[in-house]
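Example record for the data management plan.
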Amino acid sequence: MSEIRKDRLLNEFLNYLQVDRGLARNTVESYFYDLVQFAAYLERGSFTLKDASRSMVLDYLSFQREQGRSARTLSRYLAAIRSFYHYLLQERYIDADPTENLESPKLEKRLPRVLSIQEVDLLLSQPNVQTVIGLRDRAMLELLYATGMRVSELTGLNTEHLNLEMGFVRCLGKGFRERIIPIGMVAVRYTREYLLKSRARLRKNNWERGLFLNRHGKRLTRQGFWKILKGYALKAGIQREITPHILRHTFATHLLENGADLRVVQEMLGHADVTTTQIYTHLSQKRLREVYEKAHPRA
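Corresponding structural encoding:
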């Protein structure tokens, strides 16, 4: 396979992922990076992507394991390679799929880290709501914890996605799947105040539809939100690392600990499969066990 042909097939595949399967740009870029690495490995032995056999795929995964890659990373590599060859077979570029019946490396079940209710209260109280930026930040933090949205979903919100009177937000998730998420009274209050007092002062152009804006009047980026969150975690004196995804985990765990139905939480998180949501039930059980062992005299 020539370099030009390799690039053409990869570009076709990436276009298929983005257009036909509706995967997010970050996911598509991750697939591309993983496949370029695999192609480079094959080229060392003068093989092309089209030449790859089952044993070559296994050798590549063994090589990456020797480099210290985790089972989770190896599983991601295999997922990218498997998807690529499935596509080539589907389009009849190859006659046999070298990844057929290959099992993914077994992953250790890692329970997500979450914040306690006290830590959430401490974190959310850090922004100075008497300032334009502080009020924006409080509204963002409250909305993220109230809905369990991904940070990309939060920064992708437009003003028309909100219905504060009814108390819900319309969110566009992975694969362009839309979902409606209820918002609690506290998040509604701060979001409304932000819209009335801060957003108009931040906005520089009437055509800007983004809900949360930066100092330049443009839509706040994911990276911008990460920096803001990190700053408030530091200010709150919370020693462990806090990411937007930890707030998502915290949202789900606190709901389940207080009796929410698993299917309802699945719907709010936008999980296609309920088994993805079930990890939070394991976390709740683990914490219940810890409370029991501390509190019961015969534990």
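Summary line stored alongside the record: The longest helix spans residues 25-44.
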